[in-house]
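Aim 2 progress. For Tetratricopeptide repeat protein, the working sequence is reproduced below.
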Amino acid sequence: MSVAYSFPREYSHYIPLFTREEQDMINNYSSKVNKKTSMDVLKDILLEVLDNLSSPSLYFLYSLGKVLFISSNYNLLEELLDKYQSESIELWWGNALIRRTENDKVINIALKILNKNPEEKIVRLHCYSLLANAYANMESENQYRHYMQELYHESIIFHKDLDKEKFVINDLLLFAHAIDIWKERISAPLLKLENKIDVAFQIAKELGDRYHLGRLYNIRGVIYRYVGRISDSFEFISEAIKYYKAVGAKRGIAAAKANLATICTIRYELDKAEKLLKESLSIFLEVGDYKNQSLIHFSLGEIAIAKGDFQSALELYEESVSILEQINAHELQVYCSLGELYYFLGNKEKMKIIMNFLQETNKKKEGFIHGYYNLFSALLEIDNMNYGKASEYLEKALSISDTRGTGFFSAKILLQLSLVNLKQYDSFQEEEYLEKAKQYITDLEPFYEELNKTIEHVIILLVLSKIYALKGKYTNSFNILQKAKDRLNLTKKERKKDKYYHLIENRINELEELFSRDKTETSFQKETFQFEIKEMESISIRQLSEYEKELRTSILALLIVHPSGIPLLNYTIKRSSQFRDELMFGGFIVAVKDMIEELFSNPMQSKVMIISYGNNKIIMEHSPKRNFSVIILSSKDSFILRRKIHRLTQNLQDIELPQQYIGELNPKIALKINEEVKNVFGENLMLYEGAVHI
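Predicted structure tokens for this construct:
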């Protein structure tokens, strides 16, 4: 019917499914609408038509339910349900309850409808979608997968049987795709997520569905933020807002604005972020979305921390947790951040309550949350001066964080490990603690340098220069102080007031005097690290609200190299044979040859080397224990990538490698290496299953 073409495309597909009477009545409004009409305007038209219908059809009410759901008119949806007692409305009411995290109610509604009307195909598919979504929210993986499989399986069958209703099936599949992509947004490789989104984008474009396009742009933007592509993230989320505004999707606008606020916080545009969050919160309050109300309070708390207002941050975090507990939702990152804030504000008893909650919730004792539990355990041990036990907990947390590619968390742990060893040195004056502190700070330095965090970088350079002076390496100490001075980059006027500049100048002068008079020690050799420890602890507090920025990168190739110089195993990420041949037989091997020789020239020394190779970087780390090297070709260097290389090197040291190697590796050893590579690089960086083994 021609009338359909004057209506928005996400709605016009329904009109041929209406009764003749409904189509004739809708036709009277065709001059008042076009393809750009919002759902709110369409809602008013449909309600007028509804008032004149004696017995609205299943699909008329179903289409009205979708319009009310998209425009976040949940109260009106509930009123119509009470009036008509229609399964068509009840299905969309179930979607509204999902938004309010009332998952048990949703499950009861869907199962009741399935049992009552099992033959209506579209109704069945919608019930499967509701059940999958509810179980996803409840983190019930088996039930979630069961109903998703039912949805996909029966959709394929119904596509063959149904013609006019195909778009309804595709609409439900888009809801399912969005759930699935969102659920995997952190754990799945980026390429897999992008492929899923591309498929969903194609379906949404064919349907002309602005709401689904907005959702997919928003999800893609969030995923790009997770992998550090901040500019791309901002672009996609901004595009999502345009689609949401066009269709009148209030809740979508709120969600996208909240995601934009996160990016503004990353860029340290705090006032702009705060404004966006408050706009989002007002919408979430209006539509009764409690879970997102909680997350907005949490985000506002992070901004308060960034501004140094810890009391306001505490109140906002506690409000966030209070809302989560009311709706029985688990957003464990909120609890982790609250526990950390309790610790730094001196309320260790409340932090212990959070720890018990995390332990009870995360019974498998794995993943990022277990990393936080180990960090909290370490902080308590540090307070009790049980530094050895604290170091054990911190190393466990660091292993988890490095494997997951969580840069800020790894940096946070490295900072604490540095502090633990500096405190032990102050207590026992033993060289081993100084050497460990140096290694941790050396590992940490690229983090602050990469993110251009001047004060933090200068503080750890000051610590590093002092360590070198205490070890009698005065030239190293002097060079690091000069680097710190250059890093400050102050004008003459600014230098007069800057405490770090004066401290650096005093230490440089002292070293220069030492060189001129051939002294063997400096006055700060006799000092403790109390000043430096205090400064580093201030960094730790400032990092409470930090976000991932441009830290992640994609690797192009990874090699595990035997002391003989022959690769034990090779992985290429670009899958073309041309790239593989260029890598293995072209300039790459020539480029790393000298580096390999230098790495193996001193088998007792572990070191990281980095050189440029065309537009890419070659990063290598050597294992002194097993005398092998991990070599990576990457599009760029990054702190996270260095941590992953280091973690892989550490993990492979437990594998007994052959002393003599002529190119054939024992399958059991190859399997162990493959497992470690997948464990370290399989989640967030792009070493995909199916990578070419050369």
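The radius of gyration is 30 Å. This observation will guide construct design in the next reporting period.
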